[in-house]
Amino acid sequence: MAKNPYSMRGMARSLGLPYSLLMAGLKEERDMERTEGLPVGYRGDYKPFVDDSGQPRCGARCRDGHPCRAKGLGRGHRCKNHGGQSTGPKTEDGKRRALEALARGRENRRKS
């Protein structure tokens, strides 16, 4: 498949299809390959973006259009920049504040 959008427009024109219809079909085909063999509508049916070495990668689209190559973390397989697992507090002060916030949250939950 051509990566240049202008050549995709030319391909759509030569096939006699609207560009949006061609792109929608290609997206649907790509999505079908990703979720092949998984139950439809199941919440955990997301297959991670896997690189050539078989490692799960984030796969979120970066600003310049290529998929993010950072290691996919957690259940959604996204990196920390695109909504993956938090690295958590690093300093002693940060760890203390996180524990205090957890205690406050639990206390507020008990009250309501």
Strand order across the biggest sheet?
A: 1-2
- Low-pLDDT parts are none
Provide the structure class.
mainly alpha
| Rg over alpha carbons | 21 Å
Mean pLDDT: 79
Order of helices and strands: HHEEH
Count of DSSP-assigned helices: 3
Helix content: 40-55%
Number of individual domains: 2
What is the strand content?
under 5%
Tell me the major beta sheet.
2 strands, antiparallel
Protein name: HGGxSTG domain-containing protein
Organism: Acidithiobacillus ferruginosus
Relevant terms:
112 residues, mainly alpha, 3 helices, two-stranded antiparallel ribbon
Question: Your description of this structure?
Answer:
This is HGGxSTG domain-containing protein. The protein has 112 residues and is mainly alpha-helical. Helix content is 42%, strand content 4%. It has two domains: 1-37; 44-85, no CATH class. The protein has a two-stranded antiparallel ribbon. The longest helix has 20 residues, at 92-111.
